[in-house]
Amino acid sequence: MPSIYYDFGFYLGVAALITGVVTLLDKIWWQKKRAEAGKIQLDEKGEEKFPPFIDICRSFFPIIFVVLVLRSFLYEPYRIPSGSMNPGLYDGDFILVNKFAYGIRLPAFNTKIIDVGEPQRGDVIVFHPPHEPQQAYIKRLIGIPGDRLEWDRGTLTIIPQCRNAVNVDGQSCDPITIKSEFVSDKVEDLVPAGNNYDTYSETINGESHDLIYLEDNAKPRRYHSLRERWTEVVPEGKYFAMGDNRDGSLDSRFWRFIDEEGIIGKAAYKWIFVSFTEDPVLFGKHLPKGISFSRAGAIE
């Protein structure tokens, strides 16, 4: 039985269902009953005055339906909730998620009904993680089903699953080596504790993006990717993802694999950055204190 995700899309779907059913019943049944009983009232324009609840449903259904379609099948807004994707994405960035990049899915159930494409290594994806299925995370996709991943202190080797010289997608079965290249001992100002990190660059599928790692002489911490070695094999129907903030991200290295049906879509565009108060202000919440459009653009 597919999971139900109780997110905004779920409640939007419930609202669309209720207002749509009420609107339909009024058109085919209740309106006729009112006319037969002589209970139809007209306003000053000569148009029917509907009962309050029916009037609300008839007014809001088209709006809710359009928003539901746009949000469920085209683009969904998403706020970056942490610094796990520094330095490319900040806590406070608002982005648009391409919902049709990997297929058309049913709202709330996230079940794919039309296949459009498949997630590719290097994509930044938004998804429901296995340990918190009602939450939405954002990470960079590293391994696809069948991949053997070998990590050696900043160098990633991907060995695709193949039966012949090429795999089922027509791509080479040769091992893919991705090495993190040092760029600078400076990081962007908006990266928390940036003085403890160095900036690196990584290229996957011909596309480059920046990463940050703990500097070599940093004090021992729970994570220190440039000193680690590990191996994983990605099962069928699963995906492996990591944050670009390699030593400040809880990801597939810790809670393992992403389910295919948990993928929401591909992160596509940054459109606004909102800074928040450092301390809670109202009802324990951090309030916005600044807005900027300077970071708007495509996500690498």
From TrEMBL:
Keyword annotations of the record: Hydrolase, Membrane, Protease, Transmembrane, Transmembrane helix
InterPro entries from the UniProt entry: LexA/Signal_pep-like_sf, Pept_S26A_signal_pept_1, Peptidase_S26
Catalytic machinery residues: 84, 139
Ranges that cross the membrane: 6-25, 56-75
Alphabetized Gene3D superfamilies for the sequence: Umud Fragment, subunit A
Membrane topology recorded in Swiss-Prot or TrEMBL: Multi-pass membrane protein
Domain Peptidase S26: from-to ranges: 55-271
Protein's UniProt name: Signal peptidase I
GO molecular function, one term: signal peptidase activity
SUPFAM superfamilies reported for this sequence: LexA/Signal peptidase (SSF51306)
Places the protein is found: Membrane
Organism this protein belongs to: Kangiella sediminilitoris
